[in-house]
Amino acid sequence: MNNNSLKVLFACSELTPWVKTGGLADVCGSLPQALAEGGDDVRVVLPGYHSVLQHIPAPLFISVVKLPLGSITLCRGDLHGIQVLLVMHESFTNRPGNPYMSDSDRPWPDNARRFALFSQAVCEIAQDRTDLHWQPDIVHCHDWQTGLVPALLSQTDTEQHTSRPATVFTIHNLAYQGNIMIDAYNRLGLPSELLVQDGLEFWNQASFIKGGIAFADKITTVSATYADEITTKDFGCGMEGLLQYRRDRLSGILNGIDTDIWNPETDLHINTNYTFGTIDKKANNKKDLQAQLKLREDPNALLLGVISRLAVQKGIDLIIDAIKQLKNENIQLAVLGAGDSELQQQLQKLAKANPENVSVEIGFNESLSHKIEAGADVFLMPSRYEPCGLNQMYSHRYGTLPLVTSVGGLADTVIDINDDPASANGFVIKSANPVLLQQGILRVIELFKDKTRWRNLQNNAMQINYSWAASAAQYKNLYRQALQEPPKQ
Ligand code: ADP
Ligand code: GLC
Fold first, then answer.
1. Three-state SS at 153
2. pLDDT tens, position by position, 180-228
3. What is the pLDDT of residue 243?
4. Do 388 and 174 meet the contact criterion of CB atoms below 8 Å apart?
């Protein structure tokens, strides 16, 4: 530790490799490590879910903490040298499976209570009121599950002064807001003073994410373009007015990726490792993938990969439509995903009708996700909005060219051959529109025949440095600024 180092408490609801439903887990698994490598003292606080405890046979007991919403036991596990504080309560420890949903794909009915309790625990740690004897300088919160933390901590502010750590709130996805009825809020016994128009109140509801947006000393999101987009009506999910008002506190920092896990040269999930220098070997992974998924083994078929939450956000409906329309082209589709049951059914129907050319795997499968990244020619991400997106960056690493919409982090990472031929690394369509996607795929089919140009794009893609170090340095800067911010008026 040096004089310049900060104590940072990272509060999150997912953490790769212990509990993951999407990119939030990957970010929370990597960024603390990158900050620690830069010299900061970082600890993560996470709910002690049933699934997490399977990875930690003997968590270290720290203390029992009494909170307004109940007692929790604070324990500790370690991940890659980072202390992970586990908030143990039966509503986390006794629920196997997904952290937010039951098996029937319904949110747990007590989610508001669970994450309010978690937020209260974070506030106790933040104020050094547990047996940890460690007071962070910064509490960095992520998404609605921790949105109450900046709000609750702000209650210690006076007009000139605050005795709490500075708060940073990162929006990974503004559409998930943690909104509850006012009655439900009151039943939780949460402070009524916070339930005001420039606080948690949101269209006659109480909004957890608004706690982060309205009260944090600094607000970030995961790309510069999404930071702009969310101040507009089209992408602001009703929060655009508040975000415009707090624009001076809002910035975008692009996510990095774990370049050890996502590395075609060393990836243990794939049979043939490769680099750009040995890019011809990528074809073996395509052959393996076609065989594993029982697709027709044709090196000339353009193999399109999709790994995604099956949600409206991701434009999966557009993909289904495009594949139907382009059924006479030599294309194949490999989908790995879970989520919306209607989309699942439509995808399965498509696969059943085209078994040689369409494969759909429903479920969460880390190993297959690596095989698709390595084996596909193109990765499809026609998202309606995308705060950052990680798979287009993983795809770049694997020389799998992304076809994306021009939104959020996709716009900030993918360069179309028509826009800048020299540095192009993929294909961009203007927006999530079925005709544009079909035209985009047709354009890619043509380019796929030109091996020299294709190699150039792969070369550009595989050279990009997506390591976390650059983003971590930006967060560190931001933390310093957060410490200077006066309390919210
Ligand atoms: P989001 O967080 O919106 O879902 P991202 O692109 O940021 O989107 O991150 C998604 C992450 O989850 C990636 O690491 C991706 O590989 C992974 N992922 C999504 N669905 C699956 C799945 N069914 N099986 C394995 N990994 C998945
Ligand atoms: C969210 C976003 C995704 C982003 C991820 C990690 O889930 O939907 O775009 O990459 O968070 O920040």
1. helix
2. 999 999 999 999 999 999 999 999 999 999 999 999 999 999 999 999 9
3. 98
4. no
Q: What is the pLDDT of residues 254-311, one digit of tens each?
A: 999 999 999 999 999 999 999 999 999 999 999 999 999 999 999 999 999 999 999 9
Measured distance CA(138)–CA(10) in Å, rounded: 8
pLDDT of 3 higher than 70: no
Of all protein residues, the one whose alpha carbon is nearest to atom 5 of ligand 2 is: 23
Sequence letter at residue 28: C
Please give the share of the chain, as a percent, with pLDDT higher than 90: 95
Hey, what domains does the chain have and what are their CATH numbers? 7-256+468-484 (3.40.50.2000), 276-462 (3.40.50.2000)
Residue 366 CA to ligand 1 centre (angstroms): 9
The answer to whether residue 75 scores a pLDDT higher than 80 is yes
Which ligand is in closest contact with the Cα of 402?
1
Question: Residue 178 Cα, ligand 1 centroid: separation in angstroms?
Answer: 21
Q: What gap in Å lies between CA 33 and CA 210, rounded to an integer? A: 28
Sheet holding 302-310, edge to edge: 358-362, 331-339, 302-310, 378-381, 401-405, 427-429
Q: Which atom of ligand 1 is nearest to the CA of 369?
A: 25
Instruction: Quote the ligand 1 centre to 389 CA distance (angstroms).
Output: 8
* All residues at 6 or more sequence positions from 77 whose CB lies less than 8 Å from its CB, including other chains: 52, 55, 56, 59, 60, 84, 86
Residues with CB under 6 A from ligand 2: 22-24, 27, 172-173, 222, 255, 386-390, 409
Give 310 Cα–ligand 1 centroid separation in angstroms: 10
